Amino acid sequence: MGFEKFGRISFASQTKVGDFIDYLEKGELAATKCQQCGRVYFPPRSDCPWCPDSAVDWIKIEGTGKLVTFTKVHYGPTGFEDDTPYTLAVADFNGVKVFGRISKELAEEDTTVGMDLKAVTVTLLGGQLSYELVPA
Amino acid sequence: MAKDVAIIGVGQSTFVRNYEGSVRELAFEAFREAIKDAGITPDDIDASIIGSAPEYDKQRSPSGLVAEYLGLNPQPTFAIETVCSSSTTGIRAAYALIKSGLHDVVVVLGFQKMSEITSADSQERMGRGADIMWESPFGTMMPANYAMHARAHMNKYGSTEKDLALIRLKAAKYGQLNEKAVYRKGLELDQILNADPVASPLKRFDCCANADGSSCIILASADRAKEISKKPVWLMGLGSATASLTMTGRDSFAGLDCARLAAKQAYEMAGVGPADINVAEVHDCFTIAELLAYEALGFAEPGKGVDLIREGETYLEGKIPVNVDGGLLSKGHPIGATGGSQVRTIVLQLRGEAGDIQVPDPEIGLVHNIGGVGIYGNVIIFGR
Which residue in the set B131, B198, B253 is minimally distant from A74, CB to CB? Predict the structure, then answer.
């Protein structure tokens, strides 16, 4: 249990990378790194298919990322209808891609592919935990 | 050209917003047309493969139900699911069953009854086709993921919202000619460009409509095909590939890698190239998806797909007619049935039976069918 605390609506409760939630509580966005081959995984994963017996370490995603692509969503699926509009995006932090939302504070006309972003953790309604992308 | 496995019968229900019948009756609509087209009865069929995406209607394990209703007991049946490309994945499996000698005649039946749930619920199901742990909690939906690919393509190559609107304009023209399409109204360019945003830069008319529908494709071994059919259409090349389901696992958003790889495999197996294709059906669930398909299939170099639509080259009179049945944009997209509908159009074209949308004397046709937002890619090349 524990992962049901992630995001506006979580669709899973159990995972071996549930420590992700503990990092969010500390204000950190975390990825995993294979101890053997050094591949970095975000979203975090507990297994590396290339090194099946290896464990993973937690590392922080820090610094500035570049906006790869984004979309402003005007029709939300069930459970998100009253949350629209919101902007979904992919950002690249030195080769590690992060999917999430861009802060509602940033207007669409000020949002451009390639702009610098950083990831910050956020607490949503009901104490749910998440992260979002904001201008660096 | 290897003539090992052929299509001997095709059928499709009319695609509608709200089918007034049950799932089994919907499936029968396409089956009736296909067995009449092939001139066979259920006793001539050795196995069935059923394609449908889960959770749109309540029936669990629909293969058993559909096989019984179609009169296909006690022959074996099983389900295949790669969401929007389920029925072409079914055709790939049918090809393998026949080529192996295990069966001689196999039916691939795709269906979807999407009107049993609301549009928001349907977006929620589709959104859960993304990674439910790491992406769905942000409010993912299918148009948003394609919109992110559209933004990346526009940013990298300078394609525009007007280019996408031109693709819808073509779809609307041919949709009016297709009696089985759900959207048969004409559209003007301004109407398309000024429509409400769905997920920027995609607007209402950049998106296909949900629909209820079924499709049925009957495949046979060479010997049986020659016995049964006067005009068998042969499978020349089959390609199939995957890419990461998660958006974070993708190297680029300006194209779909699974489609590019599947196309390469299909061309190699068929021994032909993009210039040899006389007519194509591509997976235009969104306008951007058709533009990406032009480039994945090699009809245009990466970034140059816009020239095809700007110059009208993908119209009936152009050098490579694409989606001249109206595409998913006009026909509607009943997920499990879509690939079979595309295949039906190409089979009718190669037989010279496509009516108002007949391309002059085509010899080679191609189907490009994508599951999810570039998760599963199938490309099949057909010859007569």
Answer: B198
What is the C-alpha separation between A21 and B311, in angstroms, rounded? 53
Chain A residue at shortest CA distance from B153: A69
H-helix or E-strand containing B163?
helix B161-175
For chain A, helix, strand, coil in percent to 5 are 15, 40, 50
**CATH 3.40.47.10 domain span(s) along chain B:** 5-117+211-233, 124-210+235-383
Which site among B121, B151, B196 would you substitute to test the A interface, given the most A Cβ atoms closer than 10 Å to its Cβ? B151
A82 φ, ψ (degrees, to nearest 5): -90, 10
pLDDT digits (tens, 9 = 90+) for B188-213: 999 999 999 999 999 999 999 899 99
CA-CA distance, B50 to B227, in Å (whole number)?
A: 25
Please give the CATH number for the structural domain made up of B5-117+211-233. 3.40.47.10
CA distance B249 to B70: 41
As a whole number, the mean pLDDT across chain B is 97
Please tell me if residue A74 touches chain B, with a CB cutoff of 8 Å: yes
Test A71 with B151 for CB contact under 8 angstroms. yes
For the record, the structure tokens of A131 come out as 């992260």
| pLDDT score of B265 more than 90 | yes
Query: Which ipTM value was assigned to this complex?
Result: 0.97
CB B303 within 8 Å of CB B156: yes
**Cβ pair B90, B49 in contact under 8 A:** yes
CATH C-level class of B124-210+235-383? alpha beta
User: What pairs with residue A117 in β-bridges?
Assistant: A65, A135
pTM passes above 0.80: yes
